[in-house]
Design brief:
Length: about 450
């Protein structure tokens, strides 16, 4: 690592000295300059693996100098990662820098461990990529991910990315519709990371109210508030040295987003009832089925938090975008069901697979799993045909009526599927959501999206 050259750009001599000492102790080769002119000259003349730069180089605090230098560096070396340094109160400047192409940002005064982690992430992620792994003949999507089923190009491409980023400590944002398997991807990131032997802690932020957020995430001391009868360990402390999975992060209230941003930024938190700051070393993996960029524009999600959690974004394709994986998934679910319940093996006709591949599946893999298991258990047959899914599954357009779906958009197919399920279950939202393979909250969002009014 001694040949890993890092360019430090800061007009403060004390900062340059501190960073030089820190980087040398970590095994890097720092080169320091005090302003943009020398920085650009060195970027042109020498090979650096990373640039660590301040946002201001004169008495001004607008950050315009830093943004301008960043853009010049990215023109000269598009593949050179840049980490920005700014004061906490100027995080908005760092967000502008991220929009201009910066890899990450660090607040001053920096935490040495947080800074070194950001540097390692940049160096790992910008390292030459490993050769892509070949497909598995057993129906697995990737030889390293034995829990994930499928061999479609979209899924294989995604898992190649996961395999490359997993060994780093970079924050990961997993996006995709409900039921696509975001939690499985989060587990795969952890399992194939250097933290695999440490805790993997899951938190459903959609189910956390503002009043419970701090206690659940950071813990509390006995007597900190009414009903605090004993000490409680928070999720971040439980995940120390491991990975914390923040599911449904798009449902987190704004006031809680601020508190989450602070711990993600500084890797420190305070237990309720104890003013002593505690340090934590966690990797953050988040997931959402919502459009966070749109929420930022609507001022319902903080832009600085978005940039903190999505250093790497992984998008899971919907099941309708990987229909070739449906036969593999169906056989997998049938095999697991048979093993769990002591049932004989089940066969599926080609017509059954054709039928399933024509359905919209708004609930994605979760809906497919429910449909397969329900059909197998209710029918009791060892050879399943399309008619069995029509008879015992949730209401869908039959093969004979499939031509009526031609010309419909994916949204129209989804709306049609929801209306059919509502009709079958007499507008019982809990049963409808279960049949569709989505959560009740996700069903509510779709009802609002399509303007469907029901009485529960």
């Amino acid at each position: 690592m001694t040949d890993t050259k890092i360019l430090v750009v800061d007009d403060d001599a004390v900062v340059r000295s501190s960073l030089t000492f820190l980087l040398k102790r970590a095994g890097y080769l720092p080169v320091t300059v005090d302003g943009p002119k020398d920085a650009l000259r060195l970027v042109r003349e020498e090979e650096f693996r990373l640039v660590l730069m301040d946002m201001n180089f004169t008495l001004t605090t607008t950050g315009e100098e830093g943004i301008h230098l960043l853009r010049q560096v990215k023109v000269l070396r598009p593949d050179l990662p840049v980490i920005l340094m700014t004061a906490w109160g100027s995080i908005s400047l760092a967000v502008q820098g991220m929009q201009a192409g910066a890899f990450d940002f660090i607040t001053k005064p920096w935490n040495n461990l947080v800074l070194l982690k950001a540097i390692r992430n940049a160096l790992d992620l910008y390292a030459p990529a490993e050769p892509a792994a070949s497909e598995s003949d057993a129906g697995r999507a990737h030889p390293c991910f034995d829990k994930i089923i499928g061999k479609s190009p979209a899924l294989l491409s995604l898992l190649d990315t996961v395999a490359r980023i997993a060994p780093t400590t970079a924050s990961v944002l997993i996006t995709g519709e409900s039921g696509t398997g975001k939690e499985l991807i989060a587990e795969a990131v952890h399992t194939h990371s250097r933290r695999a032997k440490e805790p993997f802690v899951k938190v459903n932020l959609g189910g956390l109210s503002q009043s419970l957020f701090e206690s659940e995430m950071f813990g509390h001391k006995k007597g900190a508030f009414t009903d605090a009868y004993m000490d409680r360990t928070g999720r971040f402390e439980m995940a120390d040295k491991g990975t914390i999975f923040l599911d449904e992060i798009g449902d987190l209230e704004l006031s809680s987003q601020v508190k989450l941003l602070r711990v993600l930024q500084d890797q420190t938190f305070e237990v309720l009832g104890d003013s002593r700051p505690r340090k934590v070393d966690v990797r953050v993996v988040s997931a959402t089925n919502r459009d966070l960029s749109a929420m930022v524009r609507e001022h319902t999600f903080r832009e600085d938090l978005l940039y903190r959690i999505n250093l790497i974004t992984v998008h899971l394709p919907a099941l309708r975008e990987r229909r070739e994986d449906i036969p593999l998934l169906v056989r997998h679910f049938a095999q697991k069901l048979a093993e769990t319940n002591g049932l004989p093996p089940v066969e599926f006709t080609s017509e059954a697979f054709t039928y399933l591949q024509q359905l919209p599946f708004p609930g994605n893999i979760r809906e497919l799993k429910n449909l397969v298991e329900r059909t197998l258990l209710v029918s009791g047959r060892q050879r399943i045909d399309a008619s069995d899914f029509e008879q015992f599954g949730m209401p869908q357009s039959s093969l004979s009526a499939s031509t009526s779906l031609e010309g419909l958009t994916l949204e129209e197919l989804e709306r049609k599927s929801i209306l059919q399920a509502l009709d079958k279950y007499e507008h019982n939202l809990s049963r409808t959501a279960e049949a569709l393979g989505i959560s009740r909250a996700a069903l509510y969002r779709r009802l609002e999206k399509y303007g469907i009014k029901v009485c529960d």
